Amino acid sequence: MSRVFFPHQTEALNALYASLRNGKRRPMMMLPTGAGKTVLASEIVKRALAKDKRVTFVVPSIELVSQAIASFEEHGISADLIGALQGSNHRRFNPAAPVQVGTVQTIARRTIQPCDVVVVDEAHVVFDAMRKWIGSEEYARVPFIGLSATPWSSGLGLLYDDLIQTTSTQALIDAGRLSPFRVFAPGERPDLTGVRTVAGDYHKGDLEKAVNKPKLVADIVETWLERGEGRPTFIFGVDRAHARSIQAEFERVGIMPCGYVDGFTDSGERADLFRRFRSGEMKVISSVGCLTTGIDADVRCLVLARPTKSAMLYTQIIGRGLRTAADHPVYGPKLDCLILDHTDTTARLGFVTDIHVPRLDDGAPNKAGIRKIQAKEEALPKVCPSPSCSFLKPAKVHACPSCGFEPAKPTTIVCEDGSLVEVTQADAARAKAQAKADLAEQRSILGQLQSYAASHGNKSGWVGHKYKAWFGDWPNAHRNVPDVEPSPRVLSWLRAQNIRWAKGSGKARGFRAPTSPATVSGGRNAEAR
Fold this sequence. Notes:
single chain; about 525 residues
């Protein structure tokens, strides 16, 4: 029974083979997260096998070799047809198999097996060995098919000769095959003054000094407690020291265990880490340089702690949280991905749905084809000016989609002394509806604070001070507010408030961490996101 493809996948395959028929030998398929790169790669291999062709499938790292082999088998390619180019001690070593899977580094160290088609996964990662292989006279007529979500590397157009795009991140979100997302830019951001730029991105050593500061690290944790809703979370740090500092701060405030992973993490430890993450036992993983590709996990919150100028890296990071997910026994359904950007990267580069690449980069100066950091300010998202929000609004959106705040619009009307301004019925109705919604939220939060204070023995004055910290005013206008069971959102906020208080006084009191998975996880019993 033949596989049924989504329309964009059928278009991509048709465009690929049309490109090859037209004489192209180095086509690049741009496949955003969620486009089904694995499905299409398997189909390309199967069609080659049907014509008795030998295929070499190239991946950028060793851990992706076994992953690719398992994926091919899952999509109907017989195990005896697949071999691993990873040395004779690899359990799948089989040089006679018509499909060989290996890293470009391994392939470069040995005599390349003759093949009829080369498929290059994550083709935006270019090694010198790959440049030599693609450019060799012996392989001039052999098709090299590149696969990448972000084929924007400098000079990639000198290696590949055709860019195939049949869908986009926004189209996949609209079709329900990727999760929608919300971005907040909360807390303090690092001062990047004096941080050098090397090869188009921030100098890592300079960057580590700018971001790995106790106050900034603590702010990441406090923000997650306030806004993260207890979601399963990936955090992206600058280097090992920075990622370890973030891990330690999470565990210091009681978010345990908090995982850590980098490129040198043992494969067994890594597997156990993700097993615990998928089960809900571990909610947060702090990482450096290794969670941007080849990860298929239910991630519902991303913390950007590593500033970057690279649209490629930024898009790869955001892609980790955009996959849809089935209902989870701890977290419930996935409604969206929450992005906490502590780096201003989104404000500088724009949303991932707004980054478009019309062509492969030919290496010439100023022809990158991607959105530049110096894009017009009015085209980039803006932070909601409400002090309690920090949501990043799309360009030209006036009212904040998250909190409803509407900045006062400048007016060209000049009112002379004694003149009157008409207020329409529509204006009055909108103001009344907004006031009603604000009042309902105020009473709900007050009721939750009252309930919490009653169950923990806090005095009535505690409630008033916490209410003022939330809304900026005292609750004197409210009467007869019933107690309400505190939501995960309020409990997380209280924990963050307690941490801030403890820093100032040297001790903590008045808060006991909830122990129920339903209250700490932001799961089925959490407020609607």
